[in-house]
Each structure stands twice: as structure tokens, then as C-alpha cells.
Design goal:
Length: 232
């Protein structure tokens, strides 16, 4: 069975509240599934799963959304909507830039990108899931998901589903310090023993197993789960 990126998981102190924020921002709706947390999604693209976690957020996330804009007015509307829903402006040392850096109600960073960004043209509202990571991990995920590399220069990589949509990018060195459990991680579907063996051959590490899932880590040490029994 081919692996599929089913959901981006986000640890949350208040999963239902945070799911409501992102559902309103993205136009997503609730999705029923048998696993943990509150899940929202749309007819295409990956879902978002919000899992309960009371540990405080102590560092910048290793992944964040880049939301696209069609005009300056559109960018301003997106920012205003996010602020109305409970987001806030963040200063992460970005300086004088054209994109706007925000945090959702639990402080998870995201950017509202200025219009005219050629790299994100045609990607949709969630233009990219921008990640801190090595070139090797970009290669790993390209092979794991069967998504082609759409950028591979100066140790920066990006992949995109053959169907289009959101790009996943990795910025290359220097990597940010790893400070405990990632608050954002992937859930994949389509598991069988052959696929798990393939992931390990590609550089994944087996961590643990639970009812209906296997947890692994990619070559950068980022944990992810492979779920059984879910389909699009």
C-alpha cells in the first residue's frame, strides 16, 4: 500500500478551540476518525489533527504554515481575520520583511506571505509547510511519500504532491536546536509490514507501537506515526 500524508498533528492545550480557529481560517470542517484528538479537513489536501498536550510551548516550532495572498488587500484581510479570531503578531527577529508573522491562539507561528511570491504560485491558500530540516530529510520524505522534489539547491529542498497543492520545504543548515518533543508531527496512512520496512531502509527509526499505529522518527529525529485502517 502506498503511504499517504493523512494529517498534520498539532499539540494543543485546548484542542477544540484551536481546531475552531484553524477551521475558520482555512474553511475546513470536522472529520470523524477513530484516533486521538480533534480532526478538521477539506476534500483535498491533508487534514489537521489537534491532540491534547498540557506541556507548555517553550521554543519556536520546527514547522509553520506559509499562507498565500493574491493582493496587498487580500494579505491585510487575512491578517485582520486571524487577529479577530485570536491570533497575535509575533516578533521572531524577522526584521523588515514583506510577509506578516503571526501566532495562533496557542502561539504556533505562521506567516501570511505577500502577493507575487513565485515559489508559492498555484499552491493554494496553504502555500507551504515550511520546515527546519536537512537536505537528507527532504530526500527521505520525497521517497517515503512518492512526492517529487520541486526544489533542491544549496541544501534547501521542497517536495509537492503530484496532485499539486501545499509544498513541504526544508531550509537546510544551520538547523535549529531540538528541544524535546515536536509539537507538530505527521500522521501517515497506508501501512503494511512492507511499507514499514521500506521506511526503515530509507533511514527511519522505529520508536514504539500502539493500538493501530506505529511511531517512527525520520533521519532528523522528527517523530511521526503510521496509522492503520484510515483511508481518504
Amino acid at each position: 500500500m502506498t503511504l499517504d500524508l493523512y494529517a498534520l498533528c498539532i499539540d494543543a492545550r485546548e484542542p477544540a478551540r484551536l481546531a475552531g480557529f484553524w477551521a475558520a481560517m482555512l474553511g475546513y470542517r470536522p472529520v470523524d476518525d477513530p484516533f486521538d484528538g480533534v480532526v478538521i479537513g477539506a476534500d483535498d489536501g491533508f487534514r489537521l489533527r489537534f491532540r491534547p498536550e498540557q506541556a507548555p510551548k517553550t521554543a519556536a516550532n520546527l514547522m509553520h504554515f506559509d499562507l498565500t495572498s493574491t493582493s496587498i488587500d487580500d494579505q491585510e484581510r487575512t491578517v485582520a481575520k486571524a487577529l479577530t479570531l485570536g491570533a497575535r503578531h509575533l516578533d521572531i527577529g524577522q526584521g523588515d520583511v514583506d510577509h506578516v508573522v503571526l501566532g495562533d491562539p496557542e502561539g504556533n507561528e505562521f506567516d501570511v506571505i505577500e502577493p507575487g511570491n513565485n515559489f508559492l504560485a498555484g499552491c493554494g491558500f496553504i502555500g507551504a509547510l515550511a520546515s527546519d530540516g536537512s537536505q537528507a530529510v527532504g530526500y527521505f520524505w520525497a521517497r517515503a511519500l512518492g512526492w517529487p522534489l520541486v526544489w533542491d539547491e544549496n541544501e534547501e529542498t521542497a517536495i509537492q504532491s503530484p496532485k499539486g497543492g501545499t509544498k513541504i520545504t526544508w531550509g537546510g543548515p544551520p538547523l535549529d536546536p531540538r528541544t524535546g518533543k515536536n509539537r507538530l508531527s505527521y500522521d501517515l496512512t497506508g501501512s503494511d509490514d512492507g511499507e514499514i520496512r521500506r521506511l526503515i531502509a530509507l533511514g527511519a527509526t522505529h520508536l514504539e507501537e500502539g493500538p493501530g499505529w506505529i511511531r517512527l522518527a525520520d533521519p532528523d529525529g522528527n517523530d511521526f506515526r503510521v496509522l492503520a485502517g484510515l483511508h481518504r
